[in-house]
Amino acid sequence: MRLFIGLGICCLIAAVMQLSATGAEKEASKKVLRHVVMFGFKTTSSDEDVQTVVDAFRKLPSEIPEIAAFEFGTNNSPEGLNDGLTHCFLVSFDSEADRETYLPHPAHKAFVEVLKPHLEKVVVIDYWADK
After folding, report:
1. CA-CA distance, 88 to 107, in Å (whole number)?
2. Structure pTM?
3. Cβ distance 130 to 31 under 8 Å?
4. For the chain, how many structural domains are there in total?
5. Which among 34, 38, 105, 123 has the fewest CB atoms less than 10 Å away?
6. Which superkingdom is the protein from (predicted)?
């Protein structure tokens, strides 16, 4: 009888552990790592120069599979609090490991080389968000 009860308790513990692991996986899948990048460009950079930078950034999701989602836009806030930052890019990742692959990726490094001659100011912030 003790053996039977002991086996029952072991099975119950295993089932609870499985549910906990599944719950943790579900909880992790509810999060997304956001990489927010905001640029201000040099006054010497032409509209065409800025568009070249934007186009280069927009190509990254097709070159780096770890990018889960991508969007961008230009500032249109009426508040005047953008402090010279005009373009915002939102790059999303499923994990910190994916972001770690992205940052030194050759395509990202090539993009930075396109950006550098035109960059006046940059702000980058990363955060975990609920999906």
Report:
1. 19
2. 0.77
3. yes
4. 1
5. 123
6. Bacteria
